[in-house]
Amino acid sequence: MSDRTASRGPQRDAAVDSLEADSLIQDESAEQVIAGKTPWQLARGRLYRDKITMTFLGIVALAVLVGLSAPILTKLGVLDPYTFHQDLIDPNTGGLPKGPAGGISLAHPLGVEPGTGRDVMSRLILGVTFSLVVATSATIIAVGLGTLLGLISGFLGHWPDFTITRLIDITLAFPQTLMLLALSGMLIDRITSFGVPAGNWSNGVYIILVLGLFGWPYIARIIRGQVLSLREREFIEAARSLGARNRRIYTKELIPNLWAPLLVYFTLLLPTYISAEAALSFLGVGIQPPTPTLGNILKYSVNYASADFTFFFFPALFIAVLVISFSLLGDGLRDAFDPKADR
User: Fold this and answer.
1) Tell me, what's the pLDDT at 139?
2) What is the three-class DSSP state of 233?
């Protein structure tokens, strides 16, 4: 009996070890199953599953890369947006390019400008840079100012909330485009008096400031509504009870919970300002030739819309692709950050 028990001892120990190993594996797998995910991880997972949004994210990333590299490529001579090529222009047709489709060739893949012979592709690529600089700068001003005033209004309440809310109403009451056109001459002169070089520098600064200063009320209303709900949460009460000042609550408690709507609104406002820059350049307010922007190239191409349609088509296509890509990227980010979105 003792020999049989002794012979079963190692087998029993092995069985116990196997059961303990199985239980450890089950515990580890259970921990992996119940491991929580941060809101960013959940949003990133939704974003990766959205193939359409990822496609337009790639287009936006390419546009930003092109915008950053275009001035460098121009300095290196890879892009040539300013050189006139009169030998490519047919004087017998009123300055239209020689050859079919606006003078498209291996040297000029998108053709040349009527009347000047400048390379259309080089001007469009460099135009993306200036258009993105104007639109991004104006968006940063609008989002930054709107976030600051929205935080103050929603968190403090009382008379600061009343004052900022009335300021929002007054700002929204002004017709933005009409103000841009009516005040351009006076305000550009004032900007020049502060030391900004006259010409395209002062015109660009004017467009950026006016777009940014008229665009902040929308984001301020959004942030105010978010802060009104956040300020009653437990973590805000805990910060107050520990003696945290308002500045710390803004930077450490509120803003980290607002970055998702801020990112979404940024990507939705940026294409609006790309279109606004193009429209204002078309109206003669903004950066003027020979410095290229998508807006002033499109304005010039309208004169040849019937005689040289390709020259009109490519600037319009660049603007449409940029605006649609940023807009759909913003829609995708909004859906990804919304936990109730039906994916």
Assistant:
1) 92
2) coil
Q: What are the start-end ranges of the E strands in the chain? A: 89-90, 96-97
Helix (H) or strand (E) holding 89: strand 89-90
What would you report as the CA-atom Rg of the chain, rounded to the nearest whole angstrom?
29
Q: Supply the DSSP symbol for 250.
A: I
**Alpha helices of 50-98 — where are they, by DSSP H?**
51-76
Residue 18: both structure tokens together: 């196997």
Give phi and psi for 270, each to the nearest 5.
-60, -50
Q: What is the pLDDT of residues 228-263, one digit of tens each?
A: 888 777 777 787 777 777 777 777 778 877 877 888
Lookup: tokens for 81: 């947006």
Residue 295: C-alpha distances to residues 59, 70, 118, 130 (Å): 20, 17, 17, 10
Q: What are phi and psi of 245, to 5 degrees?
A: -80, 165
Residue 338 has what pLDDT?
66
* The token pair that represents 78 in the structure block: 């890879």
User: Which pair of structure tokens corresponds to residue 139?
Assistant: 């968006």
In DSSP notation, 125-140 reads: HHHHHHHHHHHHHHHH
Please name every residue paired with 119 in a beta bridge, in sequence order, or none if there are none: 112
pTM of the model: 0.79
What are the φ/ψ torsions at residue 112 (nearest 5 degrees)?
-125, 160
Task: Give the residue from 320, 271, 325, 316 showing the smallest Cα distance to 120.
Answer: 316
What is the rounded distance in angstroms from the CA atom of residue 55 to the CA atom of residue 343?
Answer: 17
The per-residue pLDDT for range 169-214, each reduced to its tens digit, is 888 887 777 777 777 778 888 888 888 888 888 888 888 888 888 8
What CA–CA distance (Å, rounded) separates 85 from 87? 5
Give residue for tokens 């990133």: 44
For the chain, how many helices (H) and strands (E)?
12, 2
Could you count the other beta carbons within 10 Å of the beta carbon of residue 24? 10
Q: Which two tokens stand for residue 53?
A: 């949004």
- The answer to whether the beta carbons of residues 277 and 323 sit under 8 Å apart is no
